[in-house]
Design brief:
By secondary structure, the protein is mostly helical. It is built from 23 helices and four strands. Strands 1-2 form a two-stranded antiparallel sheet. The chain has a two-stranded antiparallel ribbon with strand order 3-4.
């Protein structure tokens, strides 16, 4: 029974046909037992493997992963077996393609859009009919990737007439928004205005028409804006705010022309503050005034025509009332204009508050104003007037130290009753008047110090 059991086990664990082994000398002539391979192919395969093995041993530096094995059949058909290991990106891309793109429908809109999404090169000229192009655009919108939508829109822009393309985009809001944004980057504001007008977006159409007019940069900009207001904008509805902006721009240009032609007082020009702050930028000059912004024009008028009566075009007060400039905008640009002119901006910055106490106008940031004044080498009295208006004693002391206003620092430390800090600050100052001022404060017996 034991012998019978052992023979049965050997039967299930053994095989009559022995597999082929390249290193075995017994199978050099026995090729007919290989499953699925002919005698000639097996002999050729064995020869190539031996050549590759001998070359590998002769050149240890060569990588076996770069070897290629070829099988040539009798009917001259060939297949290549590559043993090189693909990289990780190739495997990921191959897996994505295998799960999304079908071989039998390579030219379908869905697979073409997904190929674009994967970064593959795709020939879109296959889609020649309008229905095919529309299906391609719909599939790109359904995918939701902006780059793919732009790629399809660029193809449609080259192959479709503008009127046909706009008829396709009117009922596709997402694609239309992408196309309008694309036209803005191409500086095609006129085409964007036409599309917005067809989509009943009057305000966007007005903005694009206004931008198209400004793009021309011609000398007769005022005349062009008047024609725009009379013709194109008049045909749109619900654009009262945009029309008012264009009207104010026309008034500004009509005001800038005579101001740019005026001769400045040479004495006032000699008093100009030539220092420039990186926080403000370069001020507008007389030859640059025509076409500049409203606030730049206001700053220019504050520099050279501050005391002009309000009934004249160059008056800053007249500009404020004509163009509805806010108090904050007027105070800030007037301050910059006075500093650039070498004047005193305190009358513009400080006003009387409740019970006659001074306060900063229009809620301006005192620390911001002091930083500008410091960088533009403004008058020192501005610091003495504005620093006491800061409510926080800690911030007031910090800014006073930064701008070397010693008496204000001493007053803050005295109000805090910090005797040790006052002594340390006295030792750090080399000014004899400041040291004497601190000593007189320390001699006052009524002050109850904390330390």
């Amino acid at each position: 029974m034991a012998m019978a059991k052992q023979e049965e086990d050997n039967y299930w664990t053994s095989s009559v046909t022995k597999g082929f082994d390249f290193d075995s000398e017994e199978n050099q002539d026995n090729f007919s037992e290989l499953f699925g391979v002919t005698h000639k192919e097996t002999a050729q395969l064995s020869k190539q493997v031996k050549e590759i093995t001998s070359n590998t041993r002769a050149k240890p530096s060569s990588s076996p992963s770069s070897s290629t094995l070829s099988l040539n059949s009798d009917n001259s058909s060939s297949s290549i077996i590559r043993t090189s290991q693909p990289n990780k990106n190739y495997l990921v891309t191959n897996k994505l393609l295998s799960t999304t793109i079908h071989v039998e429908s390579v030219l379908s809109p869905k697979d073409v859009v997904r190929s674009l999404f994967l970064g593959m090169s795709v020939d879109l000229h296959y889609f020649k009919k309008l229905t095919d192009k529309t299906a391609l655009l719909d599939e790109a919108v359904r995918l939701g990737d902006g780059d793919v939508i732009v790629a399809v829109l660029l193809y449609l822009q080259r192959t479709l007439h503008q009127s046909v393309l706009f008829s396709v985009l009117i009922n596709r809001q997402v694609a239309a928004d992408q196309y309008i944004d694309m036209l803005e980057k191409q500086n095609c504001y006129k085409e964007a205005a036409v599309l917005c007008s067809q989509m009943k977006r009057s305000r966007q159409a007005a903005v694009h028409l206004y931008a198209n007019t400004l793009k021309e940069k011609k000398k007769d900009l005022s005349v062009m804006l008047q024609q725009l207001l009379k013709n194109e904008l008049n045909a749109l509805t619900g654009i009262e705010m945009e029309a008012e902006i264009v009207n104010e721009h026309i008034q500004l240009l009509e005001r800038q022309k005579p101001i740019a032609g005026l001769k400045r007082n040479e004495i006032e020009s000699g008093k100009l503050n030539l220092s420039r702050s990186p926080l403000v930028g370069s001020p507008v000059q007389q030859d640059q005034l025509l076409g500049s912004s409203l606030l730049e024009t206001l700053q220019y008028c504050c520099r050279f025509h501050w005391n002009t009566p309000e009934n004249l075009l160059v008056s800053p007060a007249a500009m404020k009332s004509t163009f509805a400039i806010t108090d904050r905008q007027f105070a800030w640009n007037a301050c910059l204009g006075k500093l650039l002119a070498g004047g005193d901006p305190l009358p513009v910055l400080v006003t009387k508050g409740l019970f006659g106490s001074p306060k900063i106008v229009a809620g301006l940031s005192i620390s911001r104003v002091l930083e500008i004044v410091w960088k533009m080498d403004g008058p020192s009295m501005i610091f003495d007037q504005l620093l006491p208006l800061i409510e926080s004693s800690q911030l007031r002391c910090q800014l006073a130290k930064r701008y070397h206003r010693h008496r204000i620092v001493i007053d803050v430390l005295t109000s805090n009753k910090d005797r040790l800090a006052l002594l340390r600050y006295r030792d750090s100052v080399n000014d004899a008047a400041v040291v004497e001022y601190v000593n007189n404060i320390l001699k006052v017996s009524s002050t109850r110090w904390k330390n």
